[in-house]
Amino acid sequence: MDYFRNILGAPQGEMQATSGADTVERLCERVSSSTLLDDRRDAVRALKALSKKFRLEVGTQAMDILINVLEQDRNDAEIISYALDTFYHVMSNEPSDDDDSTPMNSSLGCEFTEIFIKRSENVTLLLTFLEEYDFHVRWPTVKLLTVLLSNKQKELQEIILVVPMGVSRLMDLLSDSREIIRNDALLNQLTKGHGNIQKIVAFENAFERIIDIIKEEGATDGGIVVEDCLLLLQNLLRNNTSNQNFFKEGSYIQKLKPFFIIDDEYAASRQGGWSAQKVTNMHLMLQLVRTLVSPNNPQNQTVACQKVMNHCGLLQDLCSILMATGVPADVLTETINTVSEVIRGSQPNQEYFASVLAPSNPPRPAIVVLLMSMVNEKQPFVLRCAVLYCFQSFLYKNEVSQSQIIQTLLPTAADANSITAGQLLCGGLFNVDPLSNWFSAVALLHAIVENPTQKEQLLRVQLATSLGNPPVSLLQQCCNMLSQGGKVQTKIALLMILCGWLADCPIAVSHFLSNTANVPYLISQVSSSEADDHEVIVQGLCAFLLGICMLYNNDTTEAFTKSALKQVIQNRIGLESFTDKLIQVAQNENYTRAAKKPHLYHKHPNEIVFDYEFTRLFKMLENEVLKAVSGTGSVNGRLPGGPGIEHYKTLLKEQEDQVLALRRNLEEMQAFSSSSEKTVAELTVQVQQLKDQNALLKAQKATQGTPPPAGPNSSSGEEVEALRRELDAMRLQLKDKDAQLVSMSSIKNNADATESPSSQHNGSSPELDHHVSDNVRLQELERS
């Protein structure tokens, strides 16, 4: 054959494609026309063999025929298996094992999937095959449904949702004793991103079944099956308050506790450390706990789950993992993040965490050990971020712990050799490592945030500089370090803590202004015209700090009273330049990213710029600062806030009231219009009845006028007179009805015009036309 191809000049690839298409066409004809089941089975088996290499041909020619096979030959498991496998090959985008050189068209499977699911009956048919226990039917069905979900997830989810018992049939797969069917990721695909399906699956006793499978497979020491089960649990619980509440009320949180118990003897026997699968499983376990106590969940839901985790001992087990030895770094990092969210905003949990001691000699509080890792530049970056998040969560809405941290900075009679949290933070704040500066500054900021008492206490902190020199205050040392320059990250960190410290603390502002070098430095920074992105942030933060000094100024420093600062800003910087620098802070991409979530989702140290709590402070005071500096709350109408906001709120309220009033008027006019239409319809019926009576009278007169006249003149005159009277009476009745119809038509037109002013009602009513023509006929009758 190759010899003839070379002679005829036909390319081998084209001949092969043509031959393949012809073969598929003949096989399709054989399937549709054969009466013997064996012949159809052989043809479908041949189509299956060709379906990988000739996806397009098989998909376009054989789809409807194979659907008929599924419907008509469902009693034969072998032909059903061949047909399902053929569909799987056509719609799957996996590369073919037979011919790796043939490029795969990734969109082809999605197109065939769209065609297949366009008829929802096809999906229903597949779901019925799940009731078959035969492996050769159920397994190909599971594979095909998985491919369909991966290609058209949303569309197929909606179809399965409305199929009776559709989700229940899929849930039965968890009870299948054959692991290859039970362990398939079909339910993961089905539940992803669809709240209603997640709820149905949860109420099909999914939590109980999944946790049982995890136990049977060895919990965190299990294999890929445990991983799939944990992913499924996360799908069911993430952003689904109903399922989270069901999980909590069903005591499933308590059933997670055994999974976090680390066997020290087992860990010691494993010289090579944790396996990769165990690390993955533990990571997913921890993420599952975080899903239940995420700050994004409703607060009451998070608080309830935090309470359960403390009571059942899950928090204690998590803290044990923190202090354990031999735990991989990434598992330790995720454990720190998990503990952070379990204790965040929960006073009992925070108190327990404060009591946890590390197994060291002498024993130290766990928070101190964690801070030692945070200020150590040799530790992994993500681990240091996790420790900062844990420290922030420990102090969140916890004034007692805030006070205890500040007390460790003050002079006490405690053992001088002991390491305290305050010492670690001060050491990190003035370290040569910019990242340690940023972490320590943000940690100190959280120790005084929304706590004016601790801000005043922090003013008492004195630092020893060198031998023979007097100590300096922490505030002054921060200002000195800021004026010395250094890395941009360090400057941003110092400016954030100074802004948080001085905000809502006039005494701290007075201390800051008492150093005459501070204000000139800030003015020089704000007046600078450097265009680097990070320098723009520094300039904006300096402007914000100047505004805070003016906003919370008690005028105790004569050189820098509120009015003096205002004049300096207006004369040396300019209101427009000051506003530009301040607004650019909130417009920065790093600010927007930090303002979304309290957790630090950073992969590289250079990405760290702003802190979440600082963004909240900036958002709260930005408008107040501009009002204090400009005196009006806006500069050139560029700041949305102050009186303008109240004005727009009032205007919006008035417009809403007007819209409501117009809606009520429209409803009244629509009701009146409906009533008018009903009345017009009743009058139309009455007019039609009169017309019928008139026609009947005409017929009666016509039949009565035929007898031979005995006295032609007298009888004819009487009949004419009688007809004339009847015509007059009919004419009066018609005039009355015409007047009524005209009146009602005008009312209806007015109502229509009110309801839709743009539409004009042209032309007369059909009922009026009928009456005009009726008058004409009466006149003709009168003349006759």
Automatic annotation (TrEMBL):
InterPro entries: ARM-like (IPR011989), ARM-type_fold (IPR016024), P115_Arm_rpt (IPR041209), Vesicle_P115 (IPR024095), Vesicle_Uso1_P115_head (IPR006953)
Basic and acidic residues compositional bias, start-end: 767-784
Residues spanning the membrane: none
Localization in the cell: Golgi apparatus
Short name of any one Pfam family annotated for the protein: Arm_vescicular
GO cellular component: endoplasmic reticulum; ER to Golgi transport vesicle membrane; Golgi membrane; Golgi stack
Keyword Ion transport: no
Disordered, as annotated region: 699-721, 738-784
SUPFAM superfamilies: ARM repeat (SSF48371)
Segments forming domain Vesicle tethering protein Uso1/P115-like head: 348-629
Keywords noted in UniProt: Coiled coil, Golgi apparatus
Compositionally skewed regions (Polar residues) per UniProt: 742-765
Any one of the GO BP annotations: vesicle fusion with Golgi apparatus
UniProt protein name: Vesicle tethering protein Uso1/P115-like head domain-containing protein
Annotated source species: Elysia chlorotica
